[in-house]
C-alpha cells in the first residue's frame, strides 16, 4: 500500500513539473488578480544623429527595465528613423520602414511633421519622448483601457536562423467597425550601443532600449469571435543578433486608426 501511494505521489510531482514547463513556454497578456498589470506598447522614434534623443532612449530603457507604473507592463519598441542619416552620421540601426511607420502615426494623430524623439503610446497618443512625467501618465491612462488578450508561445524548432512562434488572439476588445485589425510580430534586441564619430552626438557612446530589428504582418484578426486569430509565425534572425537579448513582440493594431488593441512579449531564448 505504501508503494502504491508513493507511486501516486511521484506521478503527481511529474505532472506538476510538466505543467510548469508548459507554462514557461508561453506568455499571455491576460491580467492576473495579483499583478494587475496591463500590457502597453510604447514606441520611440529616435536617431543616433539627434542630440535630443539620448535622454528619450534612456527614459524608454528605464520604463522597460524598472516597470515603475503600477498598473502597466511596458513593452518597448525603439525605432530608429533614417531622415537624420544625411546630417553627418548614418545610424546603423535606422530603417526607412520605421520612418514610414512614423509618418502613418503623424497622419492619424494629426501632430504635424514627424520629429525625434517622439513617443507613441498604444498608437493612441504621442508626446516628446524625453518628457518622463507625461510619458508615465499617458502609459498609466492607456493601461486603463480594456485590452485584447494575446498569447504567444515558442513553436517547434525551425531551421538555423529562424525562430517559430505560436500565436493566439482572443476576442477583440474595443475594435472599431469598418477597420481592419492586423496582427504583427516584431523582434527587439537590448544591450546595443554605438560609439558615434560624427554628427550632433559625435564622441558619445550611446546606449539604447529595445531596438526593433524586424516587424512583419502575420495575419488579420476577425471581430466578433472568441478566438479572433490563431496561427504560427516564423521570424528570421540575423547572425549578429545576440539571442539572449532578443524578445518577440506580438501586437494587434487597427490599420486605419493605428490603435493597438493588445500585445505581449516573450524572450526568444528558451
Q: Overview of this structure, please?
A:
With 270 residues, the protein is of the alpha+beta class. The chain has 4 helices and 14 strands. Strands 1-6-7-12 form a 4-stranded antiparallel beta sheet. A 4-stranded mixed beta sheet has the order 3-2-4-5, with helices on both faces. The longest helix is centred in the first third of the chain and has 23 residues, at 2-24. The radius of gyration is 20 Å and the shape is globular.
Say how many strands there are: 14
Give the spatial strand order of the biggest sheet.
1-6-7-12
Alpha-carbon distance between the termini?
41 Å
Radius of gyration: 20 Å
**Number of DSSP helices?**
4
Poorly predicted runs are: 1-25, 30-34
Spell the H/E element sequence. HEEHEHEEHEEEEEEEEE
Described by strand count, sense and barrel closure, the largest sheet is: 4 strands, antiparallel
Mean pLDDT: 90
The percentage of residues in β strands lies in: 35-45%
How much helical structure, as a percent, in the residues? 10-25%
The secondary-structure class comes to: alpha+beta
Q: Based on CA inertia axes, which overall geometry fits?
A: globular
